[in-house]
Specification:
Layout: H1 7-32, H2 54-58, E1 66-73, E2 76-80, H3 83-91, H4 93-111
Antiparallel strand pairs: 1-2
Helix pairs in contact: 3-4
């Protein structure tokens, strides 16, 4: 027993954390391979939800995302307001993308012209 966790629970917790780190690294490599002419042009990919935080959007909120906190998934770029939001989004990425897409359809017309 380690703290309040059994050896099996502790091992699963460690494996989950390692998986998240590897997953974030792989997603980051996807954007790192992008052929950008300059570092200032790092956000030339059109972000989904007009640059709003994808995790917040999945939960019915509109919070501005940060271009430097992004994930590329199935050819689309998603911004996040915080590292923790990105991590939560990656935990169940398909479910979160589906939910964010549904929420975006409800509010898209009100945010279409935002920068």
């Amino acid at each position: 027993m380690i703290g309040n966790l059994s050896q099996k629970e502790f091992t699963m917790t460690i494996k989950t954390k390692i998986f998240k780190v590897v997953l974030i690294g792989l997603f980051s490599l996807g954007l790192g391979a992008c052929s950008s002419a300059s570092k200032e042009d790092h956000h030339h990919h059109k972000a989904e939800y007009n640059g709003a935080c994808a995790y917040s959007m999945a939960h019915g909120k509109h919070v501005n995302g940060k271009p430097e906190l992004n994930v590329s998934y199935k050819g689309k770029t998603y911004y996040f307001s915080e590292d923790s939001m990105r991590d939560h989004f990656l935990d169940e990425i398909k479910t979160n993308v589906d939910s964010a897409n549904k929420q975006w359809k409800k509010v898209e017309h009100t945010h279409r012209d935002r920068p």
